[in-house]
Structures are given as C-alpha cells and as structure tokens.
Write a structure and sequence with these properties.
InterPro entries: 6-blade_b-propeller_TolB-like, DUF7133, Quinoprot_gluc/sorb_DH_b-prop. It comes from Shewanella frigidimarina (strain NCIMB 400). It holds the Pfam family DUF7133. This is Glucose sorbosone dehydrogenase. With about 400 residues, the protein is mostly beta strands. The protein has a single domain (about 1-385), classed as TolB, C-terminal domain (Neuraminidase, 6 Propeller). It has strands spanning about 1-5, 20, 25-30, 45-50, 55-60, 65-70, 80, 90, 100-105, 115-120, 120-125, 130-135, 150, 165, 175, 190-195, 205-210, 215-220, 225-230, 240-245, 250-255, 260, 265, 280-285, 290-295, 310-315, 325-335, 335-345, 345-350, 350, 355-360, 365-370, 375-380. Strands 1-4-28-27-26-25 form a six-stranded antiparallel sheet, with no helix packed on it. Strands 14-15-16-17-21 form a five-stranded mixed sheet, with no helix packed on it. It has a four-stranded antiparallel sheet with strand order 5-33-32-31, with no helix packed on it. The radius of gyration is 21 Å and the shape is globular.
Length: about 400
C-alpha cells in the first residue's frame, strides 16, 4: 500500500483529480480541497487516501448529494440514486477522459429512490412502496418518459429499511428488503430477497433471515448469488461480524435475528427448533458496514483481481474507534473466500475522507465507487507499469 498526502489549500469544497503510478512512486495530479469551519480557515491541514501499488483513483463526478447505489446502462451511462433528496441522476463521460462532462436529472421528488437496476434499455427505481421503470432511458436523457409502475407490493416506508436490486442471470429482478429494526422478528417480506418477473409481477422469496442486505452479485463462474449482510448494533466493538453469504439452496434462512455471524446467539429471541440456518461463507470485522458488493468482471486489473469480490465498507458509527471506510478485495479459490485485502482506504487515522457506499464495474474495466459522505463518485483504475511515464509534477 502507498500513502498519498496532499495539503488542503482551500476551505470551500473538496476536489480530487487523479493519482498515477510513476515507476514505483505515486504522484498527485490536481488539487484536493476540504471544507473546514471558519475557525480553521487559515490552518493548513492534510488528509490521506491509501491505494494499492499500481492502482489510481480519480474523481469521476461530484456534488451529487446523498447518493447511494449505482447502475450502468448499455451505452455506458452511469445512473445514481439518492436517499432523502429523492433524486436520480444520469452521468455521461462523452469524451471518455475519465470524468463526467454531462449530467441529467432523471427524476426528483421521489421517496427514497436509492435502489437502481438497468435491464433491456430501461432503468428501474424503487419509490415509496413500489418499483417504477423509465423506458428507453439512454435515448431520452434530456426528456425521460413518464415512469411506469411495474411492481407495487413492497412494504410501506412508514418504517425505513434498506432496499437494493439487480437483475439476475435468469432475467428476473432481485430486490433485497432489509429488516426495519436493529434486531426484531419482522414479518415477511422484511429481511428477505425477492425475485420478481417484471413482465407479470409474479414474485418468489429466494432467501430470508437477513438483517440489511445492500450489496449482492452473482459469481461469473457459477452464477451463485453472493451477498453482504450487516450485523446488528449495540453488542460491543467487535461483535457481531458483518457477513458474506452465498445462496446455494433457494429459500435458505440466514439466521437473523436468532444467530449473528457464525456463532453469536441473539439473547432477545429463541431460535425455532426446526429452523435450519445457513452459516456465512466469510466473516468481516464487526461494524465495517459492507454496503456494496460486486465481482470484478473487467480485464484492466491484473489477473489476480479478476472474478474476485470487491466490497465497499461504508464504515462504522456504533464503535469506539473507526473501522471500514475502504474498498476491499475478497480473493476466491474453488468458490471459497481465502483472503481479504484492502485496495483503497479512505480512513486517515480517525478521519474519514469518504464513505464508500457502492462499487460496480465500469465498461472500460475500471470500477466506480459512490461516496455518500461527500456526494462524490470515484473511478478506480489500474496503471500497467509498462504504460507509466515519468511526469513533472511541479
């Protein structure tokens, strides 16, 4: 890992350009700014982002508010949903220089449109207790068509809960519906993953016993569904673990609220005698908040990163010292996770430079990272050593 430190020379906003690998050295290109209080207006500060050798990080887009989840269209348009601000944006890098130069407001005034998915030319968005669809969206970015309702049986938003969705290999829309509590026995479909036929509206529950699943993806080798589930709060700094799970049998129960991680028994609820629980494939540290999960499908990164899982750890709040705030790679071997390593860390001591929420594949083999702390989107790319050239950074 390499540390990158840059003086803050303005007190108005944050701007990040790119880091490049120059023959084993990392150089910062551009300027970084961070908002500070007036009392600190003349105090020079510094922040640090840590990246693995060979990788670069650039600011793809900024000033997007409380952004959450990302999805990419067939033509490379990046769509981003917000939470409380109720907006959905489309972002276009028309000159393909690694930075957005056109942005379009697709919708405003929606209720919690954080979950997005793209399929067959259409953008799907969660809104209130339903899922809506913007058809032929990439040809209508300036004037999107009126959204059509495709599913209306989501739980009411009276109790806020996490939602995320992706289209699966079978063409159905999979939506993860979190539990509306820290720990409770919530009625279905809370705490489950549903598979929905968007043409007929027919739905099927494929997994249950979940607390808060946001990041999920299918293995490019086996088509098995993998997902991250956030552990409960208020049990201490180091328990329970955040989980990485794999769905092998449709209808499996993954333990919540009776069992957390592999072996932490919930004191408030007794497990039903006949309930079979599927244990996690891998345990992450407690409170890292694994909100984004994607298999890397590109070819830009070196071979050892390909077809492995990348996880966005949004970072801890229910802990005496901070953990997470990073992008990690989970190395796979024979359909098992054998190692976890940090690729990008946004935590400078106890100061979070960013809170990565989602991480997804970009069409050119890079990866996009959403930051719900600053409203930024970063682009993670790899600089092959043979492509590096010495540059004057004066």
């Amino acid at each position: 890992m390499y540390n990158i430190r840059q003086k803050i020379i303005s007190m108005q906003y944050i701007r990040l350009r790119s880091y490049v690998n120059l023959g084993g050295k990392l150089a910062f290109m551009g300027v970084m700014f961070l908002a500070l209080t007036p009392a600190l207006a003349f105090a020079a500060q510094s922040v640090m982002i840590t990246v693995t050798k060979g990788f670069g990080l650039s600011l793809y887009a900024s000033d997007l508010g409380d952004i959450k989840q990302l999805t990419v269209g067939d033509e490379g348009t990046l769509f981003v949903g917000s939470q409380k601000s109720g907006t959905v944006y489309a972002l276009v890098d028309s000159d393909q220089n690694g930075q957005v130069d056109k942005r379009y407001l697709i919708a405003r005034g929606l209720d919690y449109p954080e979950a997005l998915a793209f399929h067959n030319g259409s953008l799907y968005v969660t809104e209130e207790d339903r899922i809506i669809r913007f058809e032929e969206i990439e040809s209508r970015l300036r004037r999107p068509s009126r959204a059509r309702e495709v599913y209306s049986n989501l739980p009411s938003l009276d109790k806020k809960y996490s939602r995320s969705m992706h289209f699966g290999p079978d063409g159905r829309l999979y939506i993860a519906i979190g539990s509306p509590c820290n720990v409770c026995e919530a009625a279905s479909p809370f705490g489950s993953i549903l598979a929905i036929n968007v043409d007929t509206g027919a739905s099927e529950q494929v997994a249950s016993g979940l607390r808060s699943v946001i990041g999920f993806d299918w293995s490019p080798d086996t088509n098995k569904l993998w997902f991250a589930d956030l552990g409960r709060d208020w049990m201490g700094d180091n328990i329970p673990a955040d989980e990485i799970n794999r769905l092998d049998v449709k209808g499996s129960h993954f333990g919540f609220p009776y069992l957390h991680g592999k072996d932490v028994i919930e004191p408030a609820y007794d497990k039903p005698e006949n309930l079979n629980i599927t244990l996690p494939e891998f345990e992450l540290p407690a409170h890292v908040a694994a909100t984004g999960l994607s298999f890397y499908r590109g070819e830009q990164f070196p071979e050892r990163y390909r077809k492995n899982i990348f996880v966005a750890e949004n970072g801890s709040w229910n802990r005496s010292s901070k953990v997470g705030y990073q992008i990690v790679m989970l190395e796979m071997e024979d359909n098992k996770i054998i190692n976890r390593e940090t690729v990008v860390s946004f935590l400078d001591g106890e100061f979070p430079v960013a809170r990565p929420f989602d991480v997804i594949n970009a069409p050119d083999g890079a990866m996009y990272i959403s930051d719900d702390l600053k409203g930024n989107i970063y682009r993670l790319f790899y600089n092959a050593p043979e492509q590096s050239q010495e540059t004057n950074n004066e």
